[in-house]
Write a structure and sequence with these properties.
The longest helix is centred in the middle third of the chain and has 24 residues, at about 225-250. This protein is elongated. With about 450 residues, it is of the alpha/beta class. α2 crosses α7 (about 225-250) and α7 (about 225-250) crosses α8. It has helices at about 20-25, 75-85, 120, 140-150, 170-175, 200-205, 225-250, 260-265, 270-275, 310-320, 325-330, 335-340, 340-355, 360-365, 380-385, 385-390, 430-435, 440-450; strands spanning about 1-5, 10, 30-35, 40-45, 45-50, 65, 85-90, 105-110, 115-120, 130, 155, 180-185, 255-260, 295-300, 305, 370-375, 395-400, 400-405. Strands 10-7-6-11-12-13 form a six-stranded parallel beta sheet, with helices on both faces. It has a three-stranded antiparallel beta sheet with strand order 3-4-5, with no helix packed on it. A three-stranded antiparallel beta sheet has the order 14-15-16, with helices on one face. The chain is built from 18 helices and 18 strands.
Length: about 450
């Protein structure tokens, strides 16, 4: 069976399976191929004039991903791919595993009450298989090279050129598999004067400007590792873009992801404000630099958030508060003058909101169509009826810990919803299974174990 792909003929036997060949071939513009005497003709990407389309349960179940990354940004990216069906093989150090397995408390308990796994690790490693292999040794490298040969994607977050001595750098890997999509995540990228610096999320939030605009009296980091999480999210998109390009050209490529770059990009409108004016804005705390009122306000028993994104919404707020005079006052009549007089208006509104409880104001203002909201604790967030309705907490069965809670993937789709097939694995839980698929015999595996390779 032959398939015309990217300008050359590729034998079907070079594909790992009929299903994978089908997935590749169906994206070619003009292809004729045969299976069991049945003719298929593909005229455009994904469209068939004859034959039946093979249905997929998961959007990415044709992909195989080797995950050599640790901690958060890389695992976050590969978990996204795994949620949509990609086979993700997490490569870990024997006995030690991912650093975050020891980042606790809090811990997940086994049936004996022993604390054996961190909640942090459980955040970014579901739907993956774990192989424990020491790739600092030649036999370990041979195992990874065998996995890479038949894989679509490799994700790593070692220092620049850190994998070269293990023959796992892009130049070496791309010779084994020219079509590989190789995604590197580092603090500052593969090039530039700071490329060799370590890039912890905290340092990146400081170096890339985020902390300078967060907080009030002193610079403040965000409560979660946003640079890591956003880099992981951008990386998963970059990987899919590279795969789409490979489908059309058969070419793999090296993706260079930098936490520093991502955090600069995510300065968004605050960064753009500086580029336009070349002036530094002060920290506004909970307030918005360009919209007033858009802030946290004090009530008699707590705090609420009020947002009036334009003049009509501000007018609606004033009407709800029976303070139409605040809408007519020249100091507050338009957003631009409210920004100039934010302190005075904020003090007036605080005095009004302090006359009632937060529950009163939230109920009353919502009835009046005013944009407002609570400041929930994490407990209150997971108890919110909207959270429950949207199934943002789910349960997965773990081989050691039984049923464990998991935060759901937020993506909702009509055809290919995220899947929750397997809980985060134990260290090396799938080592034997993976090696057997690579045609290692039981005796071979035992020798690798005795040599400390696995």
């Amino acid at each position: 069976i032959n398939a015309e792909y990217g300008g050359f003929l590729k034998k079907a036997s070079s594909f790992s399976s009929w299903d994978r060949m089908h997935h590749t071939v169906k994206r070619c513009r003009h292809v004729r191929y045969f299976k069991g005497g049945v003719k298929f003709v593909t005229k455009k990407y994904g469209q068939f004039s004859q034959g039946k389309k093979i249905e997929k349960k998961n959007a990415l179940d044709h992909l195989k991903v080797i995950d050599i990354s640790r901690v958060l940004a890389g695992p976050w990216a590969t978990q996204m791919l795994a949620d949509f069906g990609a086979e993700v093989i997490k490569v870990e150090r024997p006995k030690l595993g991912d650093d975050t397995r020891r980042w606790g408390p809090p811990w997940i308990k086994d049936s004996t009450g022993k604390f054996t796994e961190s909640a942090y690790f459980m955040t970014a490693n579901r739907n993956k298989k774990s192989i424990a292999v020491d790739f600092s040794k030649e036999k370990g490298q041979k195992i990874l090279h065998a996995l890479i040969k038949d894989s679509d994607v490799l994700v790593e977050n070692y220092k620049v050129n850190g994998l070269k001595k293990y023959k796992l750098d892009y130049d070496y890997v791309s010779k084994i598999n020219p079509g590989i999509i190789y995604c590197s995540l580092t603090g500052y990228g593969q090039t530039g004067p700071r490329k060799d610096e370590s890039g912890y999320d905290f340092m990146i939030q400081g170096a890339a400007g985020l902390m300078s605009i967060t907080g009030e009296d002193v610079p403040m980091k965000v409560g979660v590792a946003v640079a890591d999480l956003m880099t992981g999210t951008y990386s998963s998109f970059a990987i899919l873009a590279a795969l789409a390009y490979r489908d059309r050209t058969s070419k793999g490529q090296h993706i260079d992801m930098s936490l520093f770059d991502v955090q600069i990009a995510n300065l968004s409108y605050r960064g753009m404000s500086y580029l336009v004016t070349r002036e530094l804005e002060p920290r506004f705390g909970n307030a918005h630099p360009s919209i007033v009122p858009y802030n946290v306000f004090s009530t008699s028993d707590g705090f609420i958030i009020i947002g009036a994104g334009n003049d009509s919404q501000y007018l609606n707020l004033c009407q709800a508060l029976n303070r139409i005079d605040l809408a007519k006052d020249p100091k507050f009549s338009t957003n631009s003058v409210r920004v100039d007089n934010r302190t005075e208006l904020t003090n007036i509104l605080n005095d009004i909101f302090k006359t009632q409880t937060k529950s009163y104001w939230l109920s009353y203002l919502k009835q009046k169509g005013v944009s407002c909201g609570p400041i929930n604790t994490i407990e209150e967030t997971f108890q919110d009826p909207q959270t429950v309705h949207r199934n943002m907490e789910t349960t997965m069965h773990h081989s050691v810990f039984g049923n464990i809670p998991i935060i759901s993937n937020p993506i909702k789709m009509t055809e290919t919803m995220p899947q929750y097939n397997s809980a985060p694995p134990m260290i090396g839980e799938h080592t034997y299974e993976i090696l057997q698929k690579l045609n290692y015999s039981s005796s071979d595996i035992e020798i690798l174990k005795n040599d400390g390779i696995i």
